[in-house]
Each structure stands twice: as structure tokens, then as C-alpha cells.
Amino acid sequence: MSTVSFDNIKNAFAYKSNADLQRAYMLFKAINNRSLVSLMEPATSFAMKIGLPINFAIKGTIFKQFVGGETIEECNATIQKLYENKVGSILDYSVEGQETEEAFEQTTQAILGTVKKATNNPAISFCVFKVTGFATHDILAKQSAGMQLNPDEQQQWQRVQNRVDRICGTAAQNNVRIFIDAEESWIQQAIDDMANAMMQKYNTQHPIVYNTIQFYRTDRLEFLKQSHQHAINHNYILGIKLVRGAYMEKERKRAMDFEYTCPIQPNKESSDRDYDAGLKFCIEHINTIAICAGTHNEQSSLLLTQLMEKNNIPHQHPHIWFSQLLGMSDHISFNLAVAGYNVCKYVPYGPVKSVMPYLFRRAKENTSMAGQMSRELSLIVNEIKRRKS
Ligand SMILES: Cc1cc2nc3c(=O)[nH]c(=O)nc-3n(C[C@H](O)[C@H](O)[C@H](O)COP(=O)(O)OP(=O)(O)OC[C@H]3O[C@@H](n4cnc5c(N)ncnc54)[C@H](O)[C@@H]3O)c2cc1C
User: Fold this and answer.
1) pTM score, two decimals?
2) Is residue 12 a contact partner of residue 383, using CB atoms and an 8 Å limit?
3) Tell me: the pLDDT tens digits for 112-156?
4) 78 CA to middle of ligand 1, Å?
């Protein structure tokens, strides 16, 4: 049995000053309110559109909680603070929704900048990118569906593949591990194919490239097993970030609109079951699979520690990492870190306006039913009480 406990809120908030805690309290209290959060997105977009100077307000509140800064340099203080508390950072350039080749190239340069920053830097455990940061949804959907590309599209597709190879190749050269995020199911096949090709090319000695598997999909446990078999057949280490998945509503809506069988599990229990089965499978093959459990779920995080214990795997095994997002589930991250496990947090960064979609998603995730407190808010309230007493 594992001895780690997530109840120690002193560990969880050790890196936060009283002022930080008060600010977090005000913020989580505000976003605990469902109606307020539903107004937030249209109100902020409107204010930005008519040029109201709201950047300052955003930077001092929600941005400060969930984002490292507008630039890599602005993230330094956060990276340092996390590292002092034995938690690594994953620099995540969070600019979304770009559409021009010029913007795609800028995003590629920014990601290469994170690889450079991570080189020989023990405070940065991984880098990460989303393929949609430098590829259109359209080209990824066509490629995923096996559709014929016209000559223009073929060139466009070649540029996407080149960017992925440039980023993964640079990461490999500098011995920097890198995650490829998972996205919507209708563009995922193209992403999986590239991720597998990159792992085959760069994971021959040790894990550099990690694909992401979303267990809220009914077919992903099987996909994990197939990916592992492929890695064994081709002599490379499979790198996998295990997540439940972030696009459930969008997936369900599209499946309904286009009348196909929804790829998402019928209920939360099925997602949990497959996620945990995925963890078990990986631990059984830990010599040939390197994993990162990207989750805020206490049970799954605990299960992973128990599986490690049962199989006599040391806490700091280089093939096993736990990861949460900055500003969330600190009780999981820091208690695991204190117990000696490998832990890292996503540290998103980018201009205020560009990271707003990311911030709206975090706000929505932390609302709760009327009259109840979200988990984050109740943890903060308890820590404030503990410090007062
Ligand atoms: C480090 C890190 C990296 C991540 N990277 C990615 C990524 O690359 N791609 C991505 O898509 N997401 C990613 N996520 C987000 C992740 O997929 C989840 O949305 C989020 O973390 C919540 O799930 P959870 O495991 O923390 O646990 P929980 O809070 O226990 O589970 C919530 C999740 O369960 C699933 N779920 C909820 N209700 C149902 C239902 N009725 N039926 C079926 N399933 C249900 C959904 O996936 C939901 O997000 C990442 C998260 C972290 C912490």
C-alpha cells in the first residue's frame, strides 16, 4: 500500500504566501459561481473588442493563478518557485486559433524557444506542443480521414510534417523530452501517425517524444496496446501521456450533428475504468513504456503510486511522471513531490488575449453546483483557516 496522502494542505500550499492565498481565494470564489462564469467569456470578449483596458485586471487575477507569464522570461519566477518545491515545469506556449502560415511559423519558433530554454535545465521537465498550433483543422481532418489532398494541400501537409520533425529533432538533439497533446478525434489519426513516426525515429535509446492518449474514447485502451506492440516490433520506447480528455461536449455534439457513433465513453465510470486499466498496462510494461499521468484525479494518482509500490518500482523511476496544470490540484502535485515522486506542472504562457480561451476553460472547470464549493476553493479555505489557527 502506498503511504502518500493528498490531505496535507500545508505541503500543498507551502509555495504560496498569505497574499497569494487570499488572491486565489477571491478568484476561486468568483469562478465558483456558474452564472458569473457564463457571463465572463462574452463580457471579456466584448470589453477587448471595444478596447477597454482590461489586460491589467486579467493579469493580476485569473492570469496570475493559471499562467506563468506573457513571455518565457516572465515565467522564470514561477519555474523557480516550483523547482524549489521539487516540481518541474512544462513550458506550454498557449496561443490558439492561428490560421496563417506566418503565424504557424511564429508558433513553431516559440516552441523551439521552449526546447532551447529546457536544454540542460533541470527545472524544466518536458516541453509540449499542439499540432493545431501550426496546422489547420481542415488539413488534419482531411489527412485523418484518408482523403485525397490537392497539390496545394500536399505542400501544406509537408510543411506541417516538417515542423513536427524540426521540433522533435531539436528536442532529441538536446535531450529534451516533449509531449504531443491530443486533440479532437476527427483530427487525431493524423497526429497519432506523426507521433508514432517521431517516436520510432527519436525514442530508440530513451524516451524523447510522448504521444497523448485520451481514455474518454472507447477505443483508446486497445490503441495503447497496439502502440506498444508497434514500439516492440520496431525497437523503440513508447512515450505516453495518459489523460481522460478535454473535448467531450464538442465530440458528443459533432457525433450527433453528423449522425455517427460517438467515440466517447457512455459515462464517467467507463472513462475512469479505462484510464486506470491504461495505467496498469503501462506499469506492467514499464521497461518499454515511459508515461506521464496527466490528471487531477486523486484516485488515479493514488492508484499509480500503489502500482509502483506493488511492483517495487522506485519513486523516481525515469519512466514515470505525474503532472497537473499550474494553479490546480496543488494538493496532488506537492504531496507527491514531498513523497519523492517525479512531478511536473504545465506552465502556460502567451499574450493575455491569446491565452483567454485556455483561461475560460479553467474557469468553467472550477465552477460547481449552486451552494457547493469547488474542490480547489475548499482546499484554499481550509489552508487559510489552518494558517490563522
Ligand atoms: C498535465 C495534463 C495534460 C493534459 N493534456 C491533455 C491533452 O493533451 N489532451 C486532452 O484532451 N486533454 C488534456 N488534459 C486535460 C484532461 O484530458 C482532462 O480534461 C482533465 O485533466 C480532467 O480529467 P482528470 O483526469 O483530471 O479527472 P476527472 O476530473 O476525474 O475527470 C474529468 C474527465 O472525465 C471525463 N468525463 C467526465 N464526465 C464524463 C462522462 N459523463 N462520460 C465520459 N467521460 C467523462 C472527461 O474526460 C473529463 O474531462 C491534460 C490534463 C493535464 C493535467
Assistant:
1) 0.95
2) yes
3) 999 999 999 999 999 999 999 999 999 999 999 999 999 999 999
4) 24
Could you tell me if 191 and 218 are in contact, meaning their C-beta atoms sit under 8 angstroms apart? Answer: no
Report the candidate in 8, 3, 2 with the shortest Cα–Cα distance to residue 331. 8
Q: How far is the CA of 245 from the centre of ligand 1 (A)?
A: 4
Domains (range + CATH), the chain: 1-67+354-389 (no CATH), 71-349 (3.20.20.220)
CA–centroid distance, 91 to ligand 1, in Å, is: 19
- The pLDDT tens digits of the residues spanning 54-90 come to 777 788 888 989 999 999 999 999 999 999 999 999 9
Rounded Cα–Cα distance for residues 284 and 182 (Å): 23
Residues 6+ apart with CB under 8 A from 52: none
CA geometry: angle 242, 246, 247, nearest 5 deg: 130
Give nearest CA residue, ligand 1 atom 33: 244
